[in-house]
Amino acid sequence: GIEARIQEMLTAAGCETVEQFAAQQVAPGATADALRNYMTLDTFYGVYLDYLQKQYNMTDEEAIQYYTENEEILNQNKISKENGDVVDIRHVLIQLDDSETDEMGQVVYTDEQWEECRVKAQEIYDSWLAGEATEDTFAQLAKDNSKDGNAAQGGIYTDVTKGAMVETFDAWIFDESRVAGDSGLVKTPFGYHIMYFVNRKAKWIDDTRKYAISEQINKIIEEAMAAYPL
């Protein structure tokens, strides 16, 4: 996919050739071959980094043990048991095709359009409820109907922190009574959302896991840099 990415970069920068792009956007003296080599290495790096993160994954129990053993340094990095919860949720965003956006990029509907949007969302929601109504079928519902950018991923948002979403969306997912499998409709300035609550996790456990994995990967990077000095 590198050649396609390069063409996108050329178009965005208004350059006609790779050589022109390399000289103008990278550095004087940069060549097309050097740019391709860099992008190839960078792609391999990204794939390997993703591989490492999966290799060094931790269970909740392992993360709790790591926190117990490293609480002081974690607290210094603003990771503590006072950090609240994060949630995983799925949603399907329903918008009308003829909606407009204001200067802030928010969807603008008339009252009639809002009602039409609600009815459409309710019909799609009811069709899901009438079936198996599982997380897997909800993910497919999002792929088939959602107008959000994460539709292809089944409408999933992971590790959402309180206050990260718009008010009504945030209030629904952080309702203290919310349990796995809960669903419903929520209205936001962007349209109607069909909601599916996946789970709730203690933020400090997830933050500890990310910190521990990062430490493992940084160690590998440091060892590689020492072995292959520039």
What is the element layout, followed by pairings?
Blueprint: H1 2-13, H2 18-26, H3 32-55, H4 60-69, H5 71-76, E1 85-94, E2 100-101, E3 107-108, H6 111-129, H7 135-145, E4 156-161, H8 167-173, E5 183-188, E6 191-202, H9 203-227
Antiparallel strand pairs: 1-4, 1-6, 2-3, 5-6
Specify the helix fraction band. Answer: 40-55%
- Secondary structure class reads alpha+beta
- What low-confidence regions span 5 or more consecutive residues with pLDDT below 50? none
Number of H/I helices: 9
The proportion of residues in beta strands is 15-25%
Brief summary of the model shown:
With 230 residues, the protein is an alpha+beta fold.
Features:
two-stranded antiparallel sheet; 230 residues
Describe the structure.
The protein has 9 helices and 6 strands. It is an alpha+beta fold. The protein has helices at residues 2-13, 18-26, 32-55, 60-69, 71-76, 111-129, 135-145, 167-173, 203-227; strands spanning 85-94, 100-101, 107-108, 156-161, 183-188, 191-202. The chain has a 4-stranded antiparallel sheet. The chain is flat, with a radius of gyration of 23 Å. The two termini are 28 Å apart. Strand 5 and strand 6 form a beta hairpin. The longest helix is centred in the last third of the chain and has 25 residues, at 203-227. Helix 4 (60-69) packs across helix 9.
